[in-house]
Amino acid sequence: MKKICCFLRGVNVKGTSMKMADLKTAFEKMGFTDISTIQASGNVIFDTPDNLGKEELKQAIEKHLSSYFQYDANVFLREKGEIEELLSTGKTLTVPGDYHLYSLICDNKEILEELKALFTETPHEPLEDYIVTETDAFWTVPKGSTLSSEFGSKVLGKKRYKSYLTSRNINTIEKIYKTLNE
């Protein structure tokens, strides 16, 4: 068995509402075990057999959740080591005291590069930053400006990127990592 974290896109925002207890039940009905939810933003940790491929797993979860909750589910899967690497990289970044650090979790390197170009050409605060890593990206943004920033408004709420990425505050990633290690 291996531990996986499933990040759901768009949970409990813009009319897509679900209780974490219901989300846990949905994962139980798929046959997963040792299930935990972290916060109300659609983060699920579960055990799955080692022999299931990530893409196969992703497609099965999206299909089941779309049917179960009657919405277009988009999920992003990360194994324990990937979460550890994400958190470790995030901790090396300098974040001004009045800024948040977000991880942009994405399964498409080309989209990360596209977003880098978009960030560069979009007006942003002097200390706002976008950093691409091997697998994901990080974005620093002034507190309270996540969706109102030029970059955030062009990326986070747009359908164009719906199936490509989701975002989480680094504090959420840290909570997920702690849960994975309990």
Describe this structure in words.
The protein is of the alpha+beta class and 182 residues long. It has two domains: 2-81, SP0830-like domains (Alpha-Beta Plaits); 83-180, bacterial protein sp0830 like (Alpha-Beta Plaits), CATH 3.30.70. The protein has helices at 20-29, 54-69, 80-92, 109-121, 150-155, 170-180; strands at residues 2-8, 33-38, 43-48, 75-79, 99-106, 129-132, 137-142, 165-169. The strands form two sheets. It has a four-stranded antiparallel beta sheet with strand order 2-3-1-4, with helices on both faces. β2 (33-38) and β3 form a beta hairpin. α3 (80-92) packs across α6 (170-180). The longest helix has 16 residues, at 54-69. 33% of the residues are buried. The mean pLDDT is 92. InterPro entries: DUF1697. This is DUF1697 domain-containing protein.
Explain briefly what this protein structure is:
With 182 residues, the protein is α+β, with helices and mostly antiparallel strands. It has helices at 20-29, 54-69, 80-92, 109-121, 150-155, 170-180; strands spanning 2-8, 33-38, 43-48, 75-79, 99-106, 129-132, 137-142, 165-169.
